Amino acid sequence: QVQLVESGGGLVQPGGSLRLSCSASGIIFSIFDLGWYRQAPGKQRELVARTTSGGSTNYADVVKGRFTISRDNAKNTVYLQMNSLKPEDTAVYYCNAARTGARAYWGQGTQVTVSS
Questions:
Q1: Span 67-89, mean pLDDT?
Q2: Mean pLDDT, range 2-31, rounded to an integer
Q3: Gap between the Cα atoms of 102 and 56, Å rounded
Q4: How much is the pLDDT for 102?
Q5: Strand intervals (E) in the chain
């Protein structure tokens, strides 16, 4: 059974930092592309950052220079370091694992709230 479990969300003041983690089980982690998505109330889920199995990364324009995605294949874990957080970053953040020809997997989400 495939499981993706996010952690590290919480309440942080504007300008603060958080590090999200997503631990995976039940998949060959290293061959999957991994992504972080977010969904704010009343909005569609959107891609925040993605890292491929080959190590390439891409980011949404609104988080470039503030967020960093990384993966540790030995620990089956993907991270999202979020710095200089803004109130508009408030959302539920989801971990995603995908590869061509296979179904995509999602975590249950972790809430990030940026507020003073």
A1: 97
A2: 96
A3: 20
A4: 84
A5: 3-7, 10-12, 18-25, 33-39, 46-51, 57-59, 67-72, 77-82, 91-98, 105-106, 110-114
Helix (H, G, I), strand (E, B) or coil at 12: strand
Whose CA is closest to 93, among 80, 76, 104?
80
Alpha-carbon distances, residue 92 vs 23, 37, 49, 110 (angstroms): 17, 8, 14, 5
Which pair of structure tokens corresponds to residue 86?
């803004």
Sign, Cα dihedral of 51, 55, 61, 66 = positive
pLDDT at 87: 97
What is the rounded distance in angstroms from the CA atom of residue 44 to the CA atom of residue 51? 21
Q: Cα(77)–Cα(3) distance, rounded to whole angstroms?
A: 12
As a whole number of angstroms, the distance between CA 8 and CA 79 comes to 10
Residue 28: both structure tokens together: 């060959």
Say yes or no to pLDDT of 8 above 90. Answer: yes
Contact 93, 110 (CB under 8 A): yes
